[in-house]
Specification:
68% helix, mainly alpha
Amino acid sequence: MEFKCLQRPTVAELAETLTWIDFSFDCHYIEEEIHFQLHQKANEIGAMLGKMIANPEKFNPFTTKLTDR
């Protein structure tokens, strides 16, 4: 149950991170290329989180056998 409870806050943290990336770019703290790269990485992480949320049983060590990994 704890694994599932941690999923929503993780997605919220990613959204907050994206906000700060945009803020940093808007204030000219980072260049456009860095902004783009950070957004790409965040989108990759978001996709991984989406898979984990859709299939939590594959990622929960308490419900997955070692041979299933």
